[in-house]
Amino acid sequence: MSLTDTPQAASNLFEYSVSELSGALKRTVEERFDHVRVRGEISGYRGPHSSGHAYFALKDDRARLEAVVWRTSFGKLAFKPEEGLEVIATGKLTTYPGSSKYQIVIEQMEPAGAGALMALLNERRLKLEAEGLFAADAKKPIPFMPRVIGIVTSPTGAVIRDIHHRIADRFPVHLLVWPVRVQGETSGAEVAAGIAGLNAIDGKGALPRPDLIIVARGGGSLEDLWGFNDEAVVRAAAASDIPLISAVGHETDWTLIDHAADRRAPTPTGAAEMAVPVRADLVAGLAALHARHSAAISRRFSEERRGIASLSRGLPAPDMLLALPRRRLDESANEIGRCLAIAVGEKRRAFSGTSARLAPQNLESLVRHKRAELRESEGRALHALQGLAWKRRQAFDRLVAELRPHQIGALAAASRHRLDTLGTRLSAAIDAAGERKRIGLLAASRIAASLDPRQVLKRGYAIIRDAENRPVTRPEELVPGMAFEVEFSADQRRSAVVTGELDRESPPLRARPRPPRRAPKIAQGQGTLF
Known about the structure:
CATH 2.40.50.140; Rossmann fold; flat; disordered N terminus
């Protein structure tokens, strides 16, 4: 008997199937490690799956633990997983029988201490700063007296009451509150939506458009304020067209929205003080300015009055101003009588002399002398006119003698004959020139007809044109995928596209040989010359 035929010894161990053993291990692990906290570095994270679940691993320097975050828990995480981030995960262990693996189902997750959270915050700050979201030249000035202030905060906290009371005490204006959660996994998205929503108000409806936005929250730990470090909140604050004041936490608390905002307030109350001035101070300032203005006007009037008085003392009296002109007037009045008497005497002497020359006998003598001169001038003019008429009559007679009728008729006949000859030569020249032009035109038309490409197309050729209607003359101009047109006779075109690869070494295409012409049939009974 061989050893293989020896009966197997009986055993009292319970026999498990693979499924039973895997199920027992699963129950044991889940009961023993129902709620655990694990510290490790995230590895292999590629974002949530299309199903909404997230799969990655937690590792340290000696071991690796598979992890999964179900979709229902992923949306509740305070911050999203990132590759290489050290975290503390809270959940329960379980096994996956399909591959004999165990994993942790994470329900909560937080950075491994403030150091890791600050490292993540610093990394995000450097990234956004590199994009220019914190640039100082992009900051907008805060309006001095806004009419409407939009506030993004919790409607039930003490922050909104503090801001409301502080603004009411300083300078009451219209407040427009956008309620959001200021802590939790959805706080970042709600704050970003609130900033964008206030910017979207155009003021044409029932809600007025804010002139200023305040994003406020009370103090808290770094984890409590983490929603205001969200990238979406920072981008919404940087993209806001309305000036924005960040009032998150206390004076020692800093968040990323503080860098993107146009102004940072140490506290929500400080934001209210930045937003509006003190009305009483403005009234007092206006009263002081009014008093100073009135006093300045009074002082100016007094100074001008004193100046005018000083100038008036320097002016002379009216009697002194009129004394010299009055004396000149008196002297002129005395002199004018004497001057008039002298002028009248001189004019009288001149008149007497002129009247003496105008005696009647002198006038008659002057008239006789002028009449004699006139008769003498009349005789000379008549003699001159008679001589001129005689000269003109002799010149006319000479011209009449030179104009012979038979010479004029001969000259007209010769000119008429010459004109007929020139007309005949002109008609012949016009006919000859027209014949030469006609012959040249016929020759040019025959040459143009022989060079017309349409005549070539009628013989079976075609023209290839590219998309810009230019002829393609070389095969290397056709590339695969190029659109072209083929023009045939009678102005017919067809579009086509180059397909396949061109063979650069193939010989050029030759025209298809034309079939030989058939010899014409010779009629019976008729000979041929060939």
